[in-house]
Structures are given as C-alpha cells and as structure tokens.
Amino acid sequence: MTPWREGLRSLKRYPSAALGVLIIAALVATAIYAVVSIPYSEAQKLWRGGDMWQDLPVNAGPVWADRLFGGDAPRTIKAESADAAVAEEAYEGVRIEQQRLEFDFPYSEFPSEVNLFLESDHEQRQPFVRTAWITPEGDEIPIEARRVGASERISISQNQALENRLGHAPQIGLFTSAAPDAEQPQVRGGEYTLLVETVHFEEQAKLDAELVVYGQVHGWAGTDHQRRDLSIALLWGTPIALAFGLLAAVGTTVTTLLIAATGVWYRGWVDATIQRLTEINIILPLLPVLVMIGTLYSTSIWLMLGVVVVLGIFSAGIKMYRAMLLPIREAPYIEAARSYGASNMRIIMRYMVPRILPVLIPTFVTLIPTYVFLEASLAVLGLGDPVLPTWGKVLYDAQDQSALYHGFYYWVLSPAALLMLTGLGFAMLGFALDRVFNPRLRNL
Amino acid sequence: MVRDLRRLAVFSGKRLVALFFTVVIGVYLTIFIANMGGQIDELRLAQIENEVAEEVRADPAFHDLPSERREELMEERIQMEVERLRLDEPFLVRSVDYLLQALSLDLGRAEEMHSDAGSRQVAQIILERLPATVLLFGTANLLVFFVAVFAALSLSRRYGSKLDRSVIALAPSSAAPAWFYGIFLVLLFSFMVPLFPSGGMVSAPPPEGGWAYAASVIKHMALPVAAMFIAQIFISIYSWRTFFLIHSSEDYVEMARAKGLPNNLIEQRYILRPTLSPIVTSFLLMLIGLWSGAIILEQVFNWPGLGTLLFEAIGHRDTPVIIGSVVIFAYLLAITVFVLDFLYAVLDPRVRIEGGQK
C-alpha cells in the first residue's frame, strides 16, 4: 500500500489538486444536504409542478443577482385573511364581512403580477365578493364584484376592464402615483390595502382571501416558467449528477480492466472475441445509440446509465489496458504464482489487475465529468429522465423557453456554473493524479 | 520481395474480412435497435390501419356502400400496404434483407423525411446535409489539430515555463463539451453584444451573390467553430505536449542534442518524424469524427448538418435514414482503420506488417 500513500502525499504538491478536492467536497456536501433535506419522492413531486407553486412569480431572477447590480426589484408579498382586520355586520339572512388585506410596498420597481386567491366554505349559495384597491393616499379604486365558487383564483393583473380604466397594466397602474398619461410610470411606495367585502348568505360560511403581489425576484436561484423554484433542481441535480458520473465511470473503467485482463490471461479465442467486440462497439456511435434508446424505449436515467456502461465497457480503453497487461503476463512472479498452483481467477485479480490499477485512478477521475456532461447532454436534447430534476433539464427548459433571448440569464447560468464546477473539480484532481500515478509522466 | 508482397496480401485480406464482419455486426445491431427489435413494425401496422380507416371514412364515394363491403375494402387496402412494406414477413427475415441492402449502400427511401429539394431518397437526404457538417467540423477540427500540434511542439521545448504552466492549468476546461461553451458564446456575442447570429447556417433570406453568401456563412460559423476550439484546444495541446515530452527524452534525441544540432532540426528530424504515425492516426480518426457531426452542437446552433438529421430521423422514427447514417459512418471508420494499418507500416519501419507478432 505504500506506493498509494506515497502518491497521495505527493499530490499535496499540486495546488490544483487541492482546489479540485475542495470543489468535490463542496459538491458532495451539497448532495448530502439535498438528499437529507428534501426526500427523493418529495423532490419528484415538487418538480412535477402544479398548485404548490402558485404563490411564486413566473421567471423571477435570484434576489442576490439583482441586489448585486444595485437593483431594487420587489420580492413577492402576501397578505392573508389571518392577519387582516375584519369587520362584520349582520342583516336579515345576510351577513356582510369586510376584510382589509394590508401590506407595505417599499420597492422602486413594479411587481410582476397580482393575484387574489379566494376560498369559500359555503354549502348552498355562493357568497358575493366586491374588491377595491386602496392606495397609500387613501384613494379607492374598485376592482370587481362577483360571485365566487369554492376555490377561486382572481387574476387582478389580467383584468382587462381595470387595465382600460387605469391606462396601464393593473400591476403597474395600481402602484403608480402620476396621472395615467405620464410617459414613464413611477412606483409609489407605501401602505396598500385590498378591501374584500363579502356578502355571505349562510350563517356559518367563511371566506379566506390571500392576496399575492408577485415580485420580480425569488430566493437564491429564481423560478422558471412553471413558477417552480429552481433551487430544487439545482440542489437535487447535484446528487444525481455525482451518482451518474461516479457509477458510469466506475462501471466502465473497472469492468473494462477486468475484461482486458481476462482476455490477456486466457489468450486464444477469449482474447479474439473481446477484440472483435471492441471493434464492433467502436463502430456504434454512442450518442446516436443513446438518443435512439431514449426516443424509442424509455428515458429513465437508470436505463441510460446501463447502456452507457455496457457500451463503455468495450471501448478503446480495452486496447490500451491490453497493451499494458501483455508484458505483465510474462513477468516472473506470475510464473511463480502459476507454479505453486494459483487459480486463473486469482492470478487475474491478485497479480495482474492491481499492477495497472494506479493508471486507472486518473482515467476514472477524469471520466466522471465526461459522464456528468453526457447526462446533461441527453437532457439538453430533451431526453432527460422526465421525473427527475437535473441540471441538464433546467438547461433544456431554459433553451426551450428561449431564456437567453428573453434575458433570463440566471436560468442558464446557474445550472451551467454547477456543471462547470463539477467538471473542473474532477478534471483538476484527475490531471494531478495523472502526473502522480502515471510512471511515464513522473519524471517530466 | 515476392514473399513480402504475398505476406502483405494475406495480411490485408485477413484484415479486410475481419473489418467487414465488424461492419456487418455493427450495422445489424443498429438495425435491430432502430426497429426496437421489430416493435416499430407493430406501431407502423397500427398507423396504417388508422390511415386507411381515416381515408375510407373521409371519401364520400364510400359512403353509400354497405358497411360489410366497406370493411372488406379497408381490409384489402391494409393488406396492400402491408405487402408493400412487407410487414407480413417475420422481422428477422426482413432485418437480414435490410442488412444486405444497407451493406450494398442501397439506402432506400425515407419514410417520413425528405430532402430540402423534395427527394425521398435517403442517399439524397444525407448528401444534402453532408457539406454543412464537413464545412463546420472540418474547419474547427483542422484548426484545433494544427494549432494543438504546433503549440505543443513549441511548449515541449519550453517545458516548465510560465506559458507552459498556464496552458496546463487550462487543460481541465476541456471537461465541458463544445455545446456547453456554445451556450455561453451565444449569450455573450448574440444577445449581450449582438455581433454574430445565434444559429442557422446563412441568414434568411440567403444573400444574393457568391461573396455575400460566403460572408454570411462565415459569420454563422464563427460561434460554433469558436465553441469547438475552446472546448478542445487546451486538452489537445496538453496531450500532444506530454506525447512530445516523452519522445524528446528518448536517447537518440539526447544524442542529437549532445552533438549540438540546431533546435529546429532536432524538432523536425528527431521528434516529429518518429512520432508521425500516431499523429497521422489521430488526424485520420479526427477526420472520421467529422462525418458523424455532433448532435448537440448542431442542435444548439441550429446547424443543418448530419447530427441534426440523425436527431430528426430518430424523432420521426425514420428507420431508413437512421440506418443510412450509421452505415456510412461504419464504412468510413472501417476504411480508415484499414488505411491506418498500411500507413503505420509505411511511416514507421518499427511496426511489422504482422502486427508486432514475432
């Protein structure tokens, strides 16, 4: 074991290796955090999207990126019935409830959207709801009046009548101080109130209202076109990328080495078969085969992993290992092992393979990013696993929605940065290992 | 001399047979995968039934017929179509037929796709896309190859210098593939500073006149070529540099140096010439890589090459086109391997024709 320890010790001389190890450690820590904090099934459910994301803005950038460039883009603000001042008056068979949803708007930019979510637990007759907007100066702008069902989403920012009255899109008009004919609408900060006046026709009925003033920024990763928080995908992408890269790299390198050693030891038809299989495999182009399997069969990440490993086993590497193993086969100590009656398996596993294992380490480390990027490449082609949140899927969505064209840079940059970080971390370590373990490079 | 020639003939005959079988099996595997082991046929059968039913329903001439007669008619039409596509035979029989056709380069007609000129011939479709791929990947790969070899040669002479170390430090950047850098280049040079188009091969509509057309193509090529160059150049320089370093520490180079020969003579005669065969190998293999294009890079830049073609063909489940592309790729690779075997013998007298066996 001394050459190993020696090798690891001399690795310290390479600052790039230290940096690589640091990056890998950070990624592994992130992966563990992701798996522990969000269970696998939960991550899948969250990534499928749907109502659970309705309180988040569409295509919001990360908060820190906006603040970094001195922006003051609003975050999402919510005002709920639970915190609202409620006044009630009862009449003959009718009850009028007045809720004042109040909130403070301190930002200098407009919100991206305004929605009101209403939930009513009436039994027979639907309540009648009238809503009005009260500006910081106390002006009242009526919004609409209607009957509401059990669960309703009122999109105030898409209210055409309101837009016509205000002269701007509602999310701008409702927050503007100047006259509607002003060239550039100015944000007016301050205390706003949404007045929700409900006419209940039943004794016990209650109405829960939630006003959501959507921001332009959200969290540290932003959101996508389905309002999903990208941090889920960026976090969970880490364990998936590492697992895929690691399994594929280990699976291909170790089996390749074992098969090469078996072929060299047995010679004859075993070796010939392995060589022919390798040649056939080199003719099959990997990516098109993967695309074919992804399109025609299934895009499950585990199937892809299996195919990658199978096609990777009989790769050009087998020829390289064979060339290295051939002289070892004739080494005197193998002769000795044979003479005391060591089994074929023992000679292969204990005497031949360990000799070139050190050469394998760098190859294997530098292979990991290749497979991480392969998974991302498949996802970018639209062949990502449909249920798993991965970095490649985020990139695919971003490409699909022309994120760059619309200026949602964060959507492309954050998964790309993570991919690049992974690639760099493993590559830097791998290159340093190569110099340590590769005997031909040692004296250079 | 005669004995040598006979040996050469036997050797090349054996090689040819082995390579041919390799191609046969590789192509057959592709046929098998591309047909989902025959499952595509069932899909196609269902599709035919649907189409015929639609057709008969839509045609007013059939409305007055009694339903039995209509059924019969539909059945007849389906049968005709099935016979035309030979779906009534077992898949194994047909797959062998496919194989023979593919190997004789009779690529047949596409099922869904057609060339821009409207031809249904697979060969036409592939030929139409080939120039785009060769232009883009040829430019990029030749650039990378020659820059890398010469930069590596000069770096290996300046081993340990600042320049050398910084190039080595940059080598890990090649962990990311070209499409990845492509995305950033598009972000920078198409959207932030709009200097280059973000995709396509020529602007639409194509400019009149040869020069304007060429200028437009070059402008569209700039970003993808740059992406490939960035993705490959540092790792190529790194590996060539290591290669030259190993060879320049050989005894005969030390000897030449001790004799006091000028540097460029040592480079050309003592380092470059003995290393010529690996250089030629990787050059040829690089050329082969050209033919297949790069699916994702072509997708990212919307480049109308073979990669895009293959991707579309797979998406359309257009088996003849898929098989056509793979067959051509397999043939080219086999021919290259064959040519390489000869080149080794010519370039490097150390390599025996028998392939190193005593």
Report on this structure:
With 444 residues, chain A is an alpha+beta fold. Chain A has two domains: 3-47 and 228-441, MetI-like (MetI-like fold, Orthogonal Bundle), CATH 1.10.3720; 71-214, Jelly Rolls (Sandwich). Chain A is built from 17 helices and nine strands. In chain A, strands 2-3-8-5-6 form a five-stranded antiparallel sheet, with no helix packed on it. In chain A, helix 2 (15-37) packs across helix 7 (230-266) and helix 7 (230-266) crosses helix 14. Chain A starts with a helix and ends with a helix. Chain B has 358 residues and is an all-alpha fold. Helices cover 74% and strands 0% of the residues of chain B. Chain B has helices spanning 2-34, 39-58, 67-84, 91-103, 122-157, 162-170, 178-192, 210-248, 251-259, 263-272, 276-292, 295-300, 306-315, 319-347. In chain B, helix 5 runs antiparallel to helix 11 and helix 5 (122-157) packs parallel to helix 14. The longest helix of chain B has 39 residues, at 210-248. Chain B is flat. At the A-B interface, helix 8, helix 9, helix 13 and helix 16 of A face helix 1, helix 7, helix 8, helix 12 and helix 13 of B. Chain A: The chain crosses the membrane at residues 14-36, 233-266, 286-314, 356-374, 408-433. Chain A: It is a multi-pass membrane protein. Chain A: It comes from Halorhodospira halochloris.
Which helices and strands appear, and what pairs or packs with what?
The complex is a heterodimer of chains A (444) and B (358).
Chain A: H1 2-11, H2 15-37, H3 40-48, H4 63-68, E1 77-80, E2 85-91, E3 94-105, E4 113-120, E5 128-134, E6 140-147, E7 151-155, H5 160-166, H6 170-173, E8 190-200, E9 207-214, H7 230-266, H8 268-283, H9 286-296, H10 301-313, H11 317-329, H12 332-339, H13 344-383, H14 391-400, H15 403-406, H16 409-437, H17 439-442
Antiparallel strand pairs in A: 1-9, 2-3, 3-8, 4-7, 4-9, 5-6, 5-8
Chain B: H1 2-34, H2 39-58, H3 67-84, H4 91-103, H5 122-157, H6 162-170, H7 178-192, H8 210-248, H9 251-259, H10 263-272, H11 276-292, H12 295-300, H13 306-315, H14 319-347
Helix pairs in contact in B: 1-4, 1-14, 2-3, 5-8, 5-11, 5-14, 7-8, 9-10, 11-14, 13-14
